[in-house]
Structure formats: C-alpha cells, structure tokens
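pasting input
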Amino acid sequence: MSLSSLLWAFWYILPAYFANASPVLVGGGRPIDGGRYWKDGRRVFGDGKTWRGLIGGVAIGTAVGALQYFITPEFYGSLGKALLLAFLLSFGALFGDLVGSFFKRRIDLPRGSPAIGLDQLGFLISALAFAYPVKTLDSGQIIFLLVVSPFVHWGANYFAYKMGWKSVPW
Amino acid sequence: MSLSSLLWAFWYILPAYFANASPVLVGGGRPIDGGRYWKDGRRVFGDGKTWRGLIGGVAIGTAVGALQYFITPEFYGSLGKALLLAFLLSFGALFGDLVGSFFKRRIDLPRGSPAIGLDQLGFLISALAFAYPVKTLDSGQIIFLLVVSPFVHWGANYFAYKMGWKSVPW
C-alpha cells in the first residue's frame, strides 16, 4: 500500500463525501416520507431527509465528479464514466444515509441523535456497493477508507458545528 | 461476482464471526480495564469486556482456523498461514469490539446498549485490517461482507437472546 494509492482512494470516494455533507447546506424543504408514519407509529425517515437534500446532494456529488474528470481524466477514462461513477457514489451515499435513518427511526432514536458507526460507515458502504459495477478500488484501499472515514466524518461534523451550520457536533 | 466467491468470503471471515460471538459463551471474569475509570469519570471499557472473553475468543477463533485448514488446505497454503490468519482475524475482531466499547463509554452509552452500525461493522473492519497483510479478499467480496454482516449479526444476536444466552436481543 503506497501513499499514492491511499490518496487515490480519497480521490475516488470524494463525490460520496460531498453528497453526504451537502444536505447540511442545501437541505430543508419537503421531507421524502411526506410526513408519513411507519406501522410502529413513528416517522418513516423523519423531517431531516428531504427531496431537496437528496437531489441537491446527488447534483453536487455528480458535479464534483465532472471537475475530477477534468483534473485527472486518465483515472476515469471518459467523461461519461466519470459522471456515472460520481452519480452512483453520490446516490449510493444518500441512499445509505436514508436506510440508516429508517433504522434509527425504528429503534426510536430521535432525529439528529448519533448512531455511532452507522452514520460514519453506512453512506460509505452503500456508495462503494452502488459504484462497484462501474469502477472499484482494491481491497487495501477499501479497508483504509473504512478505518479513516469515521475520523474524517467526526472532524467534518465538528467543523460544521463550529461554523454554525449544524446544531449538534456529530 | 460468482456465488462461490461470496461463499469464500464467508469462509475467510468465519474466525472473526466466531471470535466476536464467543464472549457471550466464554465471557465473564475480570474486566480488562480492571475497574478503572477514564478522565471523564466513566469506565474505560466497562464490565462487559473481560480477559476471559478476549483470550477465549481469540482461542476459539484460532481453533476454527485450524479446522478450516483441514477442510480446505488449498485456500490457506499452509497450516501456519491458516493459524496466523485466524489469529489476526480473531484478535482484530475483538480489538475492534474493544475500541467500540471505549467510544460507547465516552459518549455515555451504558453497557449492552446498541451502537447501531459500530457493533455490526467495527469488529469486521478491524478484523479485515489486521488480517490484510497475510491474506485478503477482493473488493467485491469485502463490500459484500460489509453489506450482509449487519443482518447476520442481528440474526445471531436475536437467536442468542431467544436461547437465553443474552439478556437483550441486540
């Protein structure tokens, strides 16, 4: 495992990180569950998961992929492949986040409360799974991302909290 | 991704699953933190993490690896490599679990309360990282294990709860 292979792993996953972080900035609006309740009497996803956050996050992540293609075209091969990869990483990240919210509501964690592990890893695993058919990393790079992403995630959230973008530091 | 490659992924990770599950059966005894408190006034790991659970779990996981070698020697190459791999997978799994307990105590989750995600993925990621230098999987197999392990984990814990081995179903 060379240093450059670890940097390429971050470069690969960047759209997923942007998509996962962007609802903090572009979120709000109509909730995806339309205010509906699950059969346990609790919200399906909650007010924290909105269409604007989902669509905005996928758009931002995919735009990041377009920028990445123009910086390192040889890493992607073609603009079409770069855009498809970034779309799948972004959609995968937000889909994983949504599934996480579903499980958090089911065990009755209130919106915004931490699910230590799920919040830091669910979006990443989902992004890796969605993007796998188009382009993947080697196993060492994946293990590296899994080990360091929780710390990146906590650092980024603490920064967003200090900047006043989030009301809680996780 | 063929079916057999997914079955090999389970076969590879089996010592980690056994090590992670075994403290339920062989646990108890003297806690690893010796009853000591962290500077936040809470226990370092708590009474749930004991020397007997750690050593018993590593022993059971490594014994599983020895059995695996005699069933599929060609997968490991040599008994020494199979034992080393099983030891690293088992120790890695329990080390990840211990780190998870440390973080759970820091955010003041009581012993046994669920950290959705961390409990299902922390031991797995740690096992994969420790075992990586000896033998690893391909990226598709790793992503597969990450996606399905939470469900295996929940199923196994629910079974242990129904059998009366655990007091809570998670």
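fyi Residues 104 and 115 of chain A are 7 Å apart (CA to CA).
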